[in-house]
Amino acid sequence: MTTTTSTTEEIKDQGHAPKYTRNQPFHSKVLVNELLTGAGSEKETRHVELSLEDGMTYLPGDAVGIIPENRPAAVEEVLKALNFTGDERVLDHYKVEISFEEAVRTRLAIGKLTRGSVGQFAKLAPGTDGLKDMVGPDNKARAEEYCWGREFVDLATEFPGIVTNPQQLFTVLSRLTPRMYSIASSQKAHPTNVQTTVRVVRYDAHGRERQGLASGHLGERADVGAGIPIFLHANQNFRLPEDSNAPVIMIGPGTGIAPFRSFLEEREALGEKGDNWLFFGEQREQLDFLYKEQLQTMHKNGVLKQLDTAFSRDQARKIYVQDRMQERAKDLYAWLERGAYFYVCGDATRMAKDVETALLDVIAKGSNGTLEHAEEYLATMKKQKRYQRDVY
Ligand code: NAP
Q1: Torsion angle defined by CA atoms of residues 292, 252, 7 and 360, in that order, rounded to the nearest 10 degrees
Q2: Per-residue b/e over 174-191, b at no fewer than 16 CB within 10 Å?
Q3: What is the DSSP letter of 329?
Q4: For ligand 1, which residues put their CB under 6 angstroms from it?
Q5: Which of 7, 31, 52, 319 is the most exposed place for a label (fewest CB within 10 A)?
């Protein structure tokens, strides 16, 4: 998830209200948490398996919602910057009384700073030098620049003494929200658990070590046996074709592989006859070929008819999945003409756009047509639900 942004809904329990939701999650146990990337990789990508209760069901394309906690060291830093012990009592968003430490750890988004938070914080001490010039529409750019790479602790440290009552933090910070990860398993193959693929985000900014919220939680504080609140989330906009004979083309670089592992396991478990073609990309084959063995086995035994890889940093010139698509343009177009479904998962900012451009080019070349014609062709595919994306 890998975090999905599509219009999704929590999985309905056979038409009834779901038993477990973001507000009432299931207390799952970590069954497996292993590193997929090799020593020396620039990535730390993990495979995580979480237990389910009888009756909790999901389909390929769905997501699992993880309810993370802020890490203890970050909570500690915030309490210190605000000069509170953490034992103070506050009311949470549901007016339930809890300790301030619990609120900072489990209720409040102390991570990435937002302009809204800076504005609310400034309201507590109007006229404060350095803060007043980050408020209002005229100072948008300045506030945005300040927020970049900063977290709440940076603001609280730079402007001490402004939060005088712990309860005020509920107006300054937004609520800690779950993170959605694309499911990487098929329940037909793994009836009692749900699996996902997580890249752990770690970086340094403004002199502090930072971590992704949920990915940090899964990467550092979710050993086998640990408890973690989760819920399942349906995604009707990312589904295998109903026709089990329809060919499927999947473009899934990086953690974008997750739902396609689920698709392939499902089609394998059900013995579906439709052809499958996967394009996978990462930095280096030796270190970053996620699920290499399983994918290569699937390729050998025919579950994957075609497997194309693009390892961007194994040679001087970057090679990406869309370059492989161009190389295979003729066959790709032939698959589309056979009614193939085309799926993309992963980075939304650049990859998904570049893949769409390549796809249009493949269609234009294949049909000896113009770009306009290719756009119409793609629009028809969309209408037929043969072009689906899960990008983040
Ligand atoms: P990624 O960053 O998408 O990298 C996978 C491969 O795609 C690399 O070989 C990369 O090459 C290549 N690539 C870079 N730009 C590309 C482009 N324009 N078109 C096609 N391929 C391109 O993989 P990831 O690290 O697994 O991240 C996937 C997505 O998840 C990103 O949107 C990322 O921001 C997001 N994300 C996920 C998590 C998580 O799961 N916890 C955390 C943070 C971010 P080079 O690197 O050599 O250029």
Answers
A1: -160
A2: eebebbbbbbbbbbeebe
A3: H
A4: 1-2, 43, 198-199, 201, 212, 215, 253-256, 281-283, 312-313, 318, 320-322, 346-347, 350-351, 354, 392
A5: 7
CA of 295 to the centre of ligand 1 (A): 19
Minimal-distance CA residue to ligand 1 atom 16: 351
Cα separation values, 231 from 4, 103, 222, 228, 377, Å:
14, 21, 16, 10, 38
Q: CB neighbours (10 Å) of residue 202? A: 14
Q: Which residues contact 125 (CB under 8 A, 6 or more apart)?
A: 131, 159, 162
Longest dimension (CA), the chain: 71
Ligand 1 nearest atom to the CA of residue 256, by list position: 28
46-49 contact pairs (CB < 8 A, 24+): 46/197, 46/198, 46/199, 46/200, 46/218, 46/219, 47/184, 47/195, 47/196, 47/197, 47/291, 48/195, 48/196, 48/197, 48/198, 48/218, 48/222, 49/185, 49/190, 49/193, 49/194, 49/195
Q: What spacing in Å lies between the alpha carbon of 200 and ligand 1's midpoint?
A: 12
Q: What contacts 339, CB < 8 A, 6 or more positions away?
A: 246, 247, 386
Q: List the chain pLDDT tens, one digit each, 392 residues.
A: 544 444 445 665 445 667 899 999 999 999 999 999 999 999 999 999 999 999 999 999 999 999 999 999 999 999 999 999 999 999 999 999 999 999 999 999 999 999 999 999 999 999 999 999 999 889 999 999 999 999 999 999 999 999 999 999 999 999 999 999 999 999 999 999 999 999 999 999 999 889 999 999 999 999 999 999 999 999 999 999 999 999 999 999 999 999 999 999 999 999 999 999 999 999 999 999 999 999 999 999 999 999 999 999 999 999 999 999 999 999 999 999 999 999 999 999 999 999 999 999 999 999 999 999 999 999 999 999 999 999 99
